[in-house]
Amino acid sequence: MTLFADKAVLIMTPLIQHYGWKDFQAAAVCGSFGRETGGFQHLREIGQPPGRGGYGWAQWTGPRRVSFLNYCSDHGLDWRTDEANMGFFAHELTTGYRFLPGFMKKTMDLRDAVMEFEHYYEGAGVVAMSDRYQWATKALNAYRAHKEKVA
């Protein structure tokens, strides 16, 4: 598998288990993160000096970047790790974005889930919806291939 496919399975599995999401709903999250990070290859915004721009899977910026880095520091985590990124994402889903898990469950298909996640969680400066959808499709395919392989 590729870096992106491996991360998609890693991220999607607990989202499906914990929130009761369908696979396409969890894939929408990975599609957005994939778009933001170039398939998880760039965890810090390109062209920005340290301490500026976006950090992590969601390229958290401004106050959310500060919260992410503080979360990592408070928990003794390197901000580049899966544990730090998943932990902070889960933290946001229990605080300022606690409405999102239930809201995502109402989406009807992959395209709808991608649009809703970008709008209500990501709020990207460059939306690039077709890129997000392509990344989400890759995530969904990777997850389904993984499920077939382990079945």
Could you characterize the architecture of this molecule?
The protein has 151 residues and is mostly helical. It has a single domain (3-150), classed as Lysozyme (Orthogonal Bundle). The protein has helices at 3-19, 23-37, 62-74, 82-92, 100-105, 110-122, 129-150. Helix 1 crosses helix 7 (129-150) and helix 2 (23-37) packs across helix 6.
Secondary structure class reads mainly alpha
Q: CATH top level?
A: Mainly Alpha
Q: What can be said about the biggest beta sheet? A: none
Q: Ranges with pLDDT <50 over ≥5 residues?
A: none
Mean pLDDT: 96
- Portion of residues within helices: 55-70%
As a percent range, the share of strand residues is: under 5%
The CATH topology assignment is: Lysozyme
Instruction: Using the CA coordinates, give the radius of gyration.
Output: 14 Å
Offer a few descriptive terms.
151 residues; mainly alpha; Lysozyme; 7 helices; 64% helix
Task: Outline the secondary-structure elements.
Layout: H1 3-19, H2 23-37, H3 62-74, H4 82-92, H5 100-105, H6 110-122, H7 129-150
Helix pairs in contact: 1-2, 1-7, 2-6, 2-7, 6-7
